[in-house]
Design goal:
Length: 537
């Protein structure tokens, strides 16, 4: 029996959309594939899965088709534009792309089209990349889910009842489903690493200030906020694609466009030897216990790296609860005044509304409420409330920044004491959250494994290592604490979901992060896009 043309087309599409950006670039450059057929395969995949995922919220398909025709024409004339010639990519909605809105979930921004693009988007275009569209985010990029009043909710392709994370969840969802091979997101509190962990992908948070913020619309971040430095960050299905993206984004001259970017050369991960590399490992940060599969993933990764010659030893980070307090205090130091101005009278996500209400509570009310929560067994809620300080005047804000500096010094001193080159730990306490649970399971508890490295400004990556096994979903005791109860609910039914590990290095040593992640990738094999009837029905 001869397969139908539609069956053949579907099979060919599945092959094309499973290739990495690096592989696609190579095939296009050598003439084995045309940019047009690659672009069309990815557009068809997006059109097939996006009705169930709602990941791509701004499509640029006709523009992409025109650019693919131009890319093929140039190649026929012997001109290769760059290392991503004719390769499709997607971008997080926070980035400015000419002729598109950049709403970050703010309703009144939907009709405002961007007139310019920043240096990172320009660099990707100059490298030959073709933008297929922009992907969904959390409102104001503030929580570990990707839903907002403008575009609605994005679903995780591994399980539609779960979130792909946030705020770069749309990017993670469409990459995991095969609609794009490479994406650019951002990370302010785990915003690229948590989605990579939830969706079984690779991602990299660069060292603070490695990349510019000039691509992000002004209403998408708090201008002048220097306590925590957000970073644009690539996400992909291979470590090689992260390396390729960073080679493009960090090419010399970025500091001429943005003087806040120091002219630190990009290091070559291929020159890093794992033999004798000292790695500290931990599976519990003392703030929130992890799911069994998350703990196992770190332990398995440690064994892989030991087999490659690295020295992996147990380690405990210094007082992560203090780091959480500092992170929350710095992020909310203006009492969310900037976010309130940016939102104006628009609809607010309930998680944002809750944070704004809590931050406005006077200390005379907050202190007894914290005590009441502790006495009633709500330890996690009490700690979260205690971390929120509300709007600060100059003197206490400067004191908070100094506390951050002192904590960073203690953290680095602890690394120095054991001569560690890198760290291996969970990226999040749990596998992909059920929709709506991020209000309870937030960066002050389950997400604390990620925000620590935003506070410190260290480079950190996530690599997929395993999946939750049936029967190992949860060992969490259920008591009075409502946060622990929600965590157990998330854990139950999580079998089959992907689980990643977090790799951290010292400032400007992204090469070590990528080298360790590459070793893990060699062990686990390539990321295969999620497929299944649930995505196509």
């Amino acid at each position: 029996m001869t397969p139908s043309s539609s069956t053949l087309s579907s099979h060919e599409d599945a092959v094309l959309t499973s290739l990495s950006a690096s592989e696609l670039a190579c095939h296009i450059a050598e003439g084995r594939l045309s940019s047009q057929e690659v672009i069309e395969a990815h557009i068809r995949r997006i059109e097939a899965v996006n009705p169930r995922l709602n990941a791509v919220v701004v499509s640029l398909f006709e523009q992409a088709r025109a650019e693919a025709r131009k890319a093929d024409s140039l190649l026929a004339q012997g001109t290769l534009v760059g290392p991503l010639h004719g390769v499709p990519i997607t971008l997080k909605e926070q980035f400015m792309v000419s002729g598109t809105p950049t709403t970050v979930g703010i309703l009144h921004q939907k009709s405002r089209l961007m007139e310019q693009e920043g240096p990172l988007v320009k660099r990707l275009r100059q490298a030959g990349a073709i933008i297929l569209g922009k992907t969904n985010v959390s409102q104001l990029l503030m929580y570990h889910e990707s839903d907002n009043p403008v575009y609605g909710r994005t679903n995780n392709p591994w399980n539609l009842a779960r979130t792909p994370g946030g705020s770069s969840g749309g990017e993670a969802a469409i990459l995991a489903a095969g609609g794009s091979p490479l994406g650019l997101g951002g990370d302010f509190g785990g915003s690229i690493r948590v989605p990579a962990h939830f969706c079984g992908l690779y991602s990299l948070l660069p060292t603070a200030r490695r990349l510019t913020h000039h691509d992000t619309a002004p209403h998408a971040y708090v201008g002048g906020q220097e306590g925590i430095i957000a970073q644009p960050a690539p996400i992909a299905r291979s470590v090689e694609d992260l390396r390729l993206a960073m080679n493009i984004l960090t090419a010399p001259g970025l500091n001429a466009v943005d003087p806040l970017v120091p002219p630190v050369p990009w290091p070559d991960p291929t020159t890093v030897s794992l033999i004798g590399l000292r790695i500290g490992m931990y599976t519990d940060n003392g703030v929130f216990s992890v799911a069994p599969a998350v703990r196992r993933a770190v332990e398995e990764a440690a064994q892989v790296l030991r087999a490659r010659g690295a020295i992996v030893e147990s380690w405990n980070p210094p007082n992560v609860a203090e780091a959480v307090r500092l992170y929350v205090g710095l992020v909310g130091a203006d009492g969310f005044a900037t976010y309130k101005r940016n939102l104006a009278g628009d609809p607010r996500d309930r998680r944002i509304s809750f944070n704004m209400r809590v931050s406005s509570l006077p200390g005379i009310v907050r202190a007894p409420l914290v005590g009441l929560l502790r006495r009633s067994g709500q330890a996690h809620m009490a700690s979260s409330l205690q971390s929120i300080r509300g709007a600060l005047s100059v003197d206490p804000y400067w004191h908070l920044v100094e506390e951050r500096n002192q904590y960073r010094e203690r953290f680095l001193a602890a690394l120095n004491a054991d001569h560690f080159d890198a760290l291996l730990c969970p990226p999040h306490a749990l596998p992909a959250l059920t929709h709506g649970s991020s209000g309870t399971l937030n960066p002050t508890n389950a997400g604390s494994y990620a925000i620590l490295y935003n506070l410190l400004g260290l480079p950190a990556g996530v690599a997929p290592v395993t999946h939750v096994y049936p029967g190992e979903e949860s060992e969490r005791s259920v008591g009075k604490d409502s946060v622990e109860r929600v965590a157990r609910t998330v854990e139950m039914g999580s079998a089959g979901l992907p689980v990643g590990v977090q790799v951290v290095a010292r400032s400007w040593r992204e090469d070590i992060v990528l080298a360790l992640m590459a070793a893990l990738e060699e062990h686990t094999g390539p990321c295969i896009p999620v497929s299944g009837d649930a995505l196509l029905s």
